[in-house]
Amino acid sequence: METIDTLALMLGAGWAAGINLYAAILVLGYMGMTGHVTLPPGLEVLSDPMVMGIAGIMYCVEFFADKTPGVDSGWDTLHTFIRIPAGALLAAGAASGFEVDQAAELVAALVGGTLAAGSHFTKTGSRLMINTSPEPVSNWTASIVEDLAVIGGLWTALNYPTAFILLLVLFVALVIWLLPKIWRALKRLFHRLGRFFSGGGEGSAASSHSPEERAETLKSLFRDNGETADTLKK
Known about the structure:
This protein has about 230 residues and is mainly alpha-helical. It is about 80% helix and about 0% strand.
């Protein structure tokens, strides 16, 4: 592989792992197994039938978990400890195509882990906001778009590496702009939830809230954050 191809693969593997690790492994493994691309030595294991089989099973589990409101956020939280290290490992494996020393592979792992963290936290935060919407269509749409983004992104990285790197730069700029907004929105959401379950935090005043008033407060909470989620999707 040429330098630009290896660089795009390294960055793409880290980025994709943060969104859907199992889809990323399947795409890279399938392309390597069919001879569409020649994977670097550090990623050749992805074409192993056993690795692809396990990744396929886990992708099927994630396919349904990722489209169920609430379950998707729990799944994302659990995968904070899986996607980021895996993104670092995939990036380091891709860097082996440069025939570099261990120090350079460590740098690649750090870059890949950072990209995986950025894409993962953007996905996780966005899905938490989307979950404030009572209808499930938003979850399904977001999940399908994410899957297609991983498949299309890796295909672009392997076939049009320069174009992928340019698109990745735009993605990083979007993450830098979007993550603070998601963080502020989530802080407001959890603050309002805390006030709701504590009855407003005003001692005896808390007991004066009727069930009807609490129900109305909860509706207002999710309506306000649903509007925030719509804004983020736009």
